[in-house]
Amino acid sequence: MAEKSNYNRKKDQRSIRVMDQREINGSSGFTLVELLVVLTIISLLITVVSISFSESKKRSRDARRVTDIKSLSQALNLYQNNHQFYPCSALGCAGGEVIITGSDNMTGSLKADNIIGANIVDPVNDTNYRYWYNSVDGSTYTLRFCQETSSIQGLSEDCDNQIVP
Fold first, then answer.
1. Do the domain assignments include residue 19?
2. I need a labelling partner for 112 at 20 to 30 A (CA). Which of 8, 57, 102, 145 fits?
3. β-sheet bridge partners, residue 144
4. What is the pLDDT of residue 62?
5. Is residue 38 part of a domain?
6. Number of domains in the chain
7. How far is Cα 128 from Cα 102, in angstroms, rounded to an integer?
8. Is residue 41 situated within a structural domain?
9. Which pLDDT belongs to residue 145?
10. Does the residue 21 lie in any domain?
11. Distance, C-alpha 70 to centroid of its chain
């Protein structure tokens, strides 16, 4: 019987599990590797969300540009119905394409007739993204604008988008 008890004692000693460092210190925190993995996952999620949000903002600005250009086109057609010609790009119809700024000749003509109330300018309105208007003789016009994406069918991701009557 003594042999069995020695055997059982040795078996019990072998079955004692090895305590890891956290159990010895009495703490139950996270390891550095676990924290790094969590931070990496969070940073990847933030990156994906910010890229998606940025693309959504670009598509939203593009949709506004299309709406603005259609509004300008309708306003120009109303002006043409009232005067039998379109407003000239520049005073005296001398000059070519102008940037629509709100203080340009075309916008002034539309405001004077109370066709538009507020200035219609590009949502970004910097050196790359603007609206352009051209009408040399008042018989026709061209509205040109840029798009940031190619998300709207029939329009390209550049400044070659234009509308004519």
1. no
2. 145
3. 132, 162
4. 92
5. no
6. 1
7. 17
8. no
9. 92
10. no
11. 21
Q: How far apart are CA 116 and CA 136, in angstroms?
A: 21
Structural element, H or E, at residue 143: strand 142-145
Give me 24's structure tokens: 């010895």
Burial class (CB in 10 A: 0-12, 13-18, 19+), 151: middle
Asked if 98 contacts 142 with a C-beta cutoff of 8 angstroms, the reply is no
Tokens for 153? 């069918």
Rounded Cα distance, 50 and 55, in Å: 9
Residue 146 carries which side chain, given as an amino acid letter?
C
Tell me the residue type at 5.
S
pLDDT tens track for 67-77: 999 999 999 99
Q: Averaged over 150-165, what is the pLDDT?
A: 87
CA distance 121 to 65: 9
Q: Is 138 left (phi over 0), alpha (psi -120 to 50) or beta?
A: left
